[in-house]
Structure formats: structure tokens, C-alpha cells
Amino acid sequence: MNSKFKIWLQAARLRTLPLSLSGIIVGNGLAYGSDPFSLVILFLSLATTIAFQVLSNFANDYGDGVKGTDNESRIGPARALQLGLLTKEELKKGIQICAVVSLLLAFALIYVAFGTSDLLFSLIFILLGIASVVAAIKYTVGTNAYGYRALGDLFVFLFFGGVSVLGSYFLQAQEFQINLILPATALGLLSVGVLNLNNMRDIHTDKEVNKITMAVLLGASLSKAYHAFLLIGAVLTCVFYVKMDTQPAYLFMIAVLPMMIHLRRVLGYTDPKEFDPELKRLALCTFLFSILFAIGQNL
Asked: For the whole model, what pTM was predicted?
């Protein structure tokens, strides 16, 4: 395999993809009973989400690298710009190409879902697609990067929860049900949980470069309490949702056990380095949670 391709693959951070796909899985699982259910919309939704996530990862590598946030004191995996594997110009080009690909996929998805008949819905989703690209880039890039102003949690909650779950459901069913806010909230909370772990791991280095995150604002102890709130809140929200159903499906609870084991470990950790392996575990727990939830809705 070409060494340059390996570098770009590393910068794409493939381990982040399961988390980004979780909301799409839940949204399509909820919409599976709709008539007709489109596999093309499902696959385009997954492809668009992957493109947005890779764009976000490239932009994060660039933004944190330029600002000096990714330095030798960083605990997590070293980044491409930090290691000098990619130049600023190369990453900029990668961001631009990925942004174009993301929008093209989003436009194709919108056209397949709505055609030319529902122009209002098409316009709304086009604006959401553009907003997703801007949010992916502005997380760490620029002087007003919202990830440096303790707003990362809010944006992750909105895009990984609301936009991902409710948006993918609407693309299939072309209707909105207010009770679906509950599973969307659950996926948003779990996604914020992964971000919070990342920020707890980086709390000391973020302070040094004046990157303000929720973990920096709350401090180590309250960040753990916040983490517990996110995970337990997600589980309770889904429990409340399925209890409203005439045939409640609790299959997703299988994923709750490893999630609670993860939470117990996090609450006991004192060294920020210990949070790093928990990122992958929680992301995979969320992915499993979403698959089991989607299956449970269609048994």
C-alpha cells in the first residue's frame, strides 16, 4: 500500500466512523417500517456521514496542529500535521476535496429522497448539509473555532443526535414524530460522552493552549459526574421511549452492561492517560447500542 495513502488513512481516523454512523443506524431502524424503505437512501446516508466525519477529522488535525494544541505533551495518538507527515497545504487541499465530496453526496441523497417535487424539504436539507460542512471545519479551524469556546458538546449533541437520527428518519419516512426526539437525544448524549472522554484525557494540554472545553470548565471531578449524567441519561431516555410502545423492545440493554463497566472504570481513574482506551470502548458500545436498538424496533 502506498505510504502517502496510509498517511491519509491515518488522518481520516477510521476508528471514529462507528460513532458517526450510529445515529444513521438508529434513524433508519426507526424508519424501516415505512413504505417504501429505500436501501439507496440508507447507503447514501451512510456514505454522506462518513464523508462528513472524515472532513471533520482532517479539519481537526489541521486546526489543532496550526494552533499548537497537538504537541509533544499530547496523550492521544499523534496527528499527521503534528508529526510532519502532511503539510498545512496538503491538509487544506484534503479538507477542500472532502468538503466537495461531502456536499455532492448530500445533494445526491437529497435528490433521491425528495426528487423535484418537495422543494421546501430539499432546501432545508441542503442548508443542513452546508451547515454540517461548516460545523465540521469550524470546530477547530479559525480564530473563532467553537471547539475552543466550550461549544463542542452542544454541536456534537445537535449533529450526532438530532440531525443524524431525525434527519435520516425523515429522509426515509418523510414525516416527523415528536417522540423520536427521545432516541435522538440518547444518541446525542452518548456522542457527547465520547467527546467528553477526549476532553478529560486532554484537560491539561488544553489548559496550556487556552482551549476551553467543558472538561476544562468543570474540572476533573465534575467532568466525571457529567460523564455519568450523559451515559445514564441516554439509557433512561431510551427506556422511556420504548416503554411508550405497545410492544417495548429492550434489546439495546445488552449494550448497557459494558457501558456501565466503562463508566465504573472512568469514575475510578485519576490519570488522564487512562481515559484514552475508553474512547474506543465507548464508541463501540454506542455503535452496538444503536444496532441493537434498531433491530429491537423491528422485531
From this structure: 0.94
